[in-house]
Every structure is written in structure tokens, then in C-alpha cells.
Amino acid sequence: MRLHRLTLSAFGPYPGEVEVDFDALGEAGLFLLHGDTGVGKTSLLDAVAFALYGTVPGPRGQAKRLRCDAAEPHTRTVVTLELSLSGRRLLLTRSPEYLRPKTRGEGTTKQPAKATLTWLDEAPAGSTGSGGPAGLTGHREVGDAVLDLIGMSADQFFQVVLLPQGEFARFLRSDTAEREQLLERLFDTGRFADIEEAFASMRRESGQQLRRLSDELQRRRATLAEASTSDAAAEFGAEQLAALARTQQAAAQAAESASERAQQANKVAAAELAALTQRAELVRSKQQLLAQHRQLAGQADEIQAKRKALAGALAAVPVMQARATADGAASELQRAAAAERQAARRTEQLAARCGEDAAGWNGNDLLQAAEHADQFGRPPDAGELRRLAATGRELAGTLAAVVAEAGQQGDDERRRGELAAELAEAVDQITAGETTVGAVPGKLTELRDRLAAAEQAAAEVPGLKADVAAATAVADAADTLQRLQPQLADCGEQVRAAVDAHQHSRELRQQLTERRFAGMAAELAAALADGERCPVCGAGEHPHPARPSDDQVSSADVAAAQQQENAAAEQRTAQETRLAELQRRCAELTGTAAGLDSEQAVAARDAAAARVRAAVALAGQTGKRAKALQALEQRQLELQQHLHQLMSRRAALVTESHAIEDRLRDRAELLRRHARPFATVAERRQHVSDLAGAREQWAAAVDALHTAIGAATRTGQALKLSVEHAGFADLEAAAAAATAIDIDAATAQIRSFEDQQVAVAARLADPQLAEVDAGQRLDLAPVQLRAADAEKRAAAAIAAAETARRVQRRSATAIKAVTAALGALAPVAARDAELTALADVVAGRGQNARALSLRSYVLAARLRQVAEVAGQRLLRMSGQRYSFVHSAERESRGRSGGLGLDILDAHTGTVRPAKTLSGGESFLASLALALALADVVAAESGGQLLDTVFVDEGFGTLDAQTLDVVMDTLDDLRADGRTVGLVSHVDDLRQRIPTRLHVRRTPAGPAPVLQTS
């Protein structure tokens, strides 16, 4: 992978468009990005990472704020990277998601993130996507294409291409857990973790199956213990279970045989008891029959007398029936006569009210006419009465229609009163409505003014909020400036002290150097030996060698002074950098504070905030006031409609009142005419209906009286004939015979006597009783006792046999179930033990002597490769002194090993922890480790050649000699064809690297600019 050109706009600290030509910078294979701390050097690397992966390394990527805050509102945030991957040249363009001003109206809208990939040469086969054959669009498609071409994830790329600040020094000193997290990000060990999880999952499933089968076996053993009534059976093996089955089968057969013997003995005893009981029953029956025969013989005379009285009573029955019929006819004749007289009187009374003729005789005349028809005239004609009644019914029907008119007359009179009240109410409502409608326009004007004020406040809110934001920025700047002033003064003192210390150390080093040069002859003379030539003059004799003075300066003294001067220079640079940063910060804050002190700025901010709160509160009333205005306008329309409805109703009520008055006047004349001579038509109709009903009742009473006279004559004649036919002297004799005896009781008693005689005689004639001795006595008690005992023994034997059969059946079923469960459990238990051992080994437990999981084992192998590659680099960089040693020892507290990384010191031959290295040595080790990781990860990712590598910071901890070693190492990378970019603010690097990209801020503002040299 080689970078060619980077262009960014409104990204990070860069408000405008910035372009970096990596081809020009990388011509020599090594270039430097330098500038003050915080000026924006690392942001260029962030732009490269964002163009490739859509994210930036470390915490900056978590913040998700990539747009420059100082950019113009309509300037787009875009990063474009031109690079070569896998022999193909392509252009990547990405934009993050950010808020921008709306093109129409006020406020902001969200600008969505975008990503495109454009092939600058021929597109690879099968790469056509949503962007067409010349490229791809969309985050997923572009990201997948980049991942396929580079072969690294974002985390891997950030570690092996953009070597981050301090990351590998932290990795070098970290413990196993932290080191494992970084290695997992760099090397794809997901498949090995999946294998571990697969074994763990299989182990869990096998354990669950084993527990399920074990639980099932325990349940079946418990069932067997319950079925066999033996708790010990729950622990039996296969042979014991077979023996138990045989024992219970034999016990069931024995119980069955005992039950059959007991049942046979019970049958013999029951047969003996039944025969004796039957003989005793025959004796008792014959004794009862003989006693009953003697009793019937004593009742014979009484029964004969009752037969004679019963015959007389039966002969008198027809006579009594004829008498009852004649008495009923006479009573009915009396009732009919009374009813006719009552109907005649009611009819005469009703007819008298209108002066009409009742046209009828009374009931006494009619009764006498029935007894002496030749002395009285005939009763009134029922047909004539019915004709008069029909005429009255017709008149009542005619008057019914008039009665309905009378009811309507009352309804109309009530309606007339209601209309008067409703008309008065309508007039009052119209007056009130006109008053209400007249007051609405003034309220509408007031509401419209209040709504306009709220809308005006809502329009002013954004501007007022901007004022608050500006005032807040001024207040914050004034407060921060007030806090930084003491720090600025203190920092100035520290800078002056650091300058003095640096000058003092420099003068000391120069003095020591001069003194060493002055005593160099003595130093050289100390190394002369007789017979050897002088390295200065070449003489073999040394007659007057120089002598060292008391204050002779050694090379170690000069080196120590140089080291002290370097430390003072670094301290001076650090303090001057801090002072410049504080001065720059204070200058920015002074411009922002605009001459206000902290109290004035806070007061201005609070006043602006109060104005915003007031405007927001008033703007919050906009919806409420708009709804109130709309409601009042709607209310005005409703009031006008209601007033129109009231006026229409008043007109309708007036029209209806006039119509009712006309109807009441016409109907009153009709009612007076039809009511005479009564007060109302209803009274006259009721009288006509009552008179017609009375005549109908009188006609019916006349018909009933005629019928009763005929019936009385016929029943009297029938009674005389019945007495003669029954053979009685007169009616009194027949009545006496009828009451002499109860016919039903006597008939039942005679029939019962005769039935008993026949039954006793038939049973005594039975052959079984004929040979029975009625005087014989039999004792049943001993036989009953023997039979009861045999029955009890048989029941107990049957129950015991049934219990034995039930236990045998249930036990046999339970034994089969336990045997099957044992057979199913054995192979599963063996497989679970084997799988458990294997899963423990894969997880780093059990028989795994190294206590390394599969994933940790793979990571340890990768780390061993890294240690070998890094060790070779570190040997060269440390002058053949240091190299890496991979350690497989376990850590304390049972942590797994395999990820240890120590340092072998060739000078002492000892292995010591990496934490014991000095600052410069740690940088060398970290750099060697980072480069080695880059090589191994690249090889792991498919051998993709990384032509461009960036190293970010860390050079400030190196002395000049170590820096030379590091530069030699970087030259080796450059010799391999790579382009190495260094990111640092160290001044010495500017002297060593000719190709530089200077990132600085202009005096006119904080925006950084780039300058290539």
C-alpha cells in the first residue's frame, strides 16, 4: 500500500482545504511532519484513517467530532485520499455526518455521511457496485472493498501503519490480560475462540444430556422402589434386578394358589348354609299359612252380612243420582229467575236517564209463567232487546270519533300554553345572543395582537440564543484568562530559570571540553608504552610524556556534562513551549473577552440568558394563543349560526300558534253539539255503551230462564221413574239404603277376604310344604359362623393374590425401565467423560500442563514470531546488547502464561523484565516491537506489502547517539522500498531529515497551515 495524495476540507483543526503530496514527501523514502504540540500533525494521520475506514484511532474516534468548528457554515467536510493497493490505483472520498445550516429557512439539518471509491485505472473484475463500473458508493460496499484490498481491519491498520503515541511502550510494560487484548485485535483468533466455544457448548450439551438421563434413571429407580415396596431395590444392578423379578413372580404364583383353595372352601360352606336356610324358611312359611287359615275361618259370618248390605246400597245409587240432578235443575231455575230480574231493573234504570222504554217484564212474572203458563203472559222478546242493543253500539261507535277529537282538543290547549312559553324564551335568547355576538370582535382584536407578540418572540429566540452563546464564550474566556494570568507569570519565571540553568550547563560543558582538550596530551601519554609508537608524533621513545594535572577532565566527565546540558535544553524547550502555548492561549482569550473582566462578562451573559428565557416563555404561548384565537373565531361563527336558528324558530312558533287557535275554535262547536244532553261527549258515549250492554245482558238472562224451566220439568219426571225401577217404596227408603254402608270400603274388604282365602289354599297345596313338619325346629347359628369365617378367609386370600399380582406387574415394568435407562446412560457417560477431558485441554485446564487455552496458544505462537523478528531489530538498534525473549511461564494468581515478553541483556547475560529499561531504551524496544508487529500482521493478513508507515512521536526521549541508531533502523526500512513518515516536534530531526512538512499556525488566526520544505 502506497499513499499518493491527501486532500481534506473543514476536517479536524483545518477550516479550509488542505492538500498533502505524499509522492513528493516520500521521494527520499523518509519525511518528517513537525510542528508545535497541538497544531494538527496527528489530524493528518486521522484523515488518512478516516478516508480508509470511516473512523479515526483511539479516543478521538469515540468522540465522533470530525468537522472543524471554525469552518464556514457552507463549507463541506470532505477527505479525499489517492493511493495504490494491490497494484491498483484508486481514489477514496468520505464525508462524516454533521449538522449544517438549512438551504431554506433558519436552523440546521443533518448532513448524512457519504463514501465513494473510484478506480483510477481498470476496475477489477466483479467490482461493479451501486456506483457503476468505475467505482463504488455506500459505506458497506466501500468498506468491504478496502478490507479486501488491504487485508487488515481498522484496529490492525492503526497498530501496524499508524504507529500511535506510547501505545507499544504500554504494550511492552503491560500484563498478560492487556497484552492479550491488543494481540486479539491484531491477529484474527476468532475461529479458535469459536472452536473453544464449540467444545464448551458440546460439553454443556453433553452434561445436560447426562444429567437428564441420570435424573430419568433416578426417577425410574424411585418408581421401582415404590412398586417393589423395597427401598433397597433403588440401588440394584442388572443381576439383582433380574433376581428381584424372579422372586416377585414366584410370590405372585403362590398367592394365586392360596386364593383358589380359600375360594373353594368358601363355596362349600356357603352351599351348606343355603340348604339349611331354605329348610328353615319352608317350616316358617307353613306355620304362618296355617295361622292365617284359622283367622279367615273366624271372619266368614261378618263378610256374609256385608255382602247383603252392599247389594241394597248398589240398588239405591241410580235413585240418588236422579235426585241430585233434579235438585240441581231446581237451583238453576231459581238463579236464572233472579238474574233476569236484576238485568231488567238495571236496564230500566239506565233507560230512565234518557227517558227511553226498557221494554221488559220482571223475573217473578217469568217464574210464575213457568209454573202456571196458562195464567201469565210470555216473557219479553230477547231478539227485540238485542236489536235495541245493536243500535246503541252503532251510536257509541259514532261518538268514539268525536271523543278522540275531544282528547285532541285538550292536547291543542296544552300546546297553546307551551308555545307561548317557548316564544317568550326564544325572544329572551335572541336578545342575549345579539349582545354576545356584539362583544366578540373586540376580543378577536385583542387575541390577534397577543398572538403576533408571541410569534415575534419566537422569531427572536435563535438570535437571542446566539447572543447567549457569544456572551457565554466571552464569560468563559474572561474567567479562563483570569485563572491563566498567575500561571503565565509563574511560567515566565520557570522559563527564565530554565534558560539560566541551560546557559550554566552549556558553559560548564564548554569549560570541561576546553580543559579536556588542554589535558589531552596527558591523557594520550597515559596510554603510551615503551617500544610502541606515539599516535601523535610516531616516535618510538617517549622521554618526556606529559603529566596529568590535579584537575584532569576525563571523557566521562564531558559526557556527563553533555548529558546534563541536554537535559537542561529539553527542560528549557519544554518550558518555552509551555510559555508560548500559555501566551497564545491568553492572546486568544483576550481577543474573545473583548476587554471585559469576569464579573462584567458574567453579568452580560446572565442578562442575555434572561432575555432568552423571557422570549422562550413568550414564544411558548404561540400555540396556546393561536388555539385560543381559532377557538374564538369558531365560537363567533357558532354564535351567529345559533342566533339565526333562534330567529327561524321564533317565526315557526308564531305560525304554529295561529294554526292552533283556529283548530280549537272549530272543534269546540262540534263537541257541544254531540254531547247533549250530557256535559261531555265521553259521558254520552259511555251511557249509550252501558245501556246497550244492559239490554244484551237482559236478553241473555231471558234465554237462560227459558232453558232452566225446561230442565226442571224433565229432571222431576226422571226422579219418579228411577224410584219405581229400583224397587223402593219411596224416595226416603232409597235414601236410607244408600247411606246404610260405605260401598267402596265394603267392596274392598270382601275382595281382600276372598283373595286371601284363595292364596292360602294354593300355598298349602304346594308339594314342598305338604311334606314339611310344621313343628320342626332348626339351629342355623353354627353353620352361619362357619360360612362367615370361610368367606373372610377367601376375601383375604383374593386381596393378597391381587396385591402380589399388582406388585409383580408394576415391578416388572419398573425393572424394564431401569434396565433401559442404565443401558442409555452408560455410553453417554463415557462420551461425556471423554468430551469433558478434551474440552478442558482446549480451555487450558485438566491435562493441559501448560494451562494454555487454544486461543492463548495461538496468540503465544504469534507473539513468539513477533519476539523473534523484534529481537533481531532490537539487537541492531541497541548495539548487539538487547533482544526480546518470549516467556511461557504462568503468572501469579493462576493466570495462564504464554504471553510473557522479557529482555535479554547480552552484557550481563541475564533476562530481566521490560519495565526495567530506561526511557530511551524503552523507545527502542517499543519501536522494534511495533515494526515487528507490522511485519508479522502484514504476513498474517496475506503478505500485503506496506509501502508507507507512520511513526507518531516518542523521539524526545532519545539522546543523539540513540537517535542515530533509530535513524539507521528507519533507513533500513527505506532501503526495503518503504516510505517512512515521522511525526514529531523534536528539533534535531529537522536537521537530520531534509524532506519536511511543517504544520504551523499563522499570526492572523488559530487555523493551521502546511509548508513543505
UniProtKB/TrEMBL annotation:
One of its GO terms (biological process) is double-strand break repair. The keyword Coiled coil applies. Keywords: Coiled coil. Residues 259-306, 565-599 form a coiled coil. Signal peptide: none annotated. Pfam families: AAA_23, SbcC_Walker_B. One of its GO terms (molecular function) is ATP hydrolysis activity. The keyword Coiled coil applies. Residues 5-216 form the Rad50/SbcC-type AAA domain. PANTHER family: ABC TRANSPORTER ABCH.3 (PTHR32114:SF2). Belongs to the SMC family. SbcC subfamily. Heterodimer of SbcC and SbcD. This is Nuclease SbcCD subunit C.
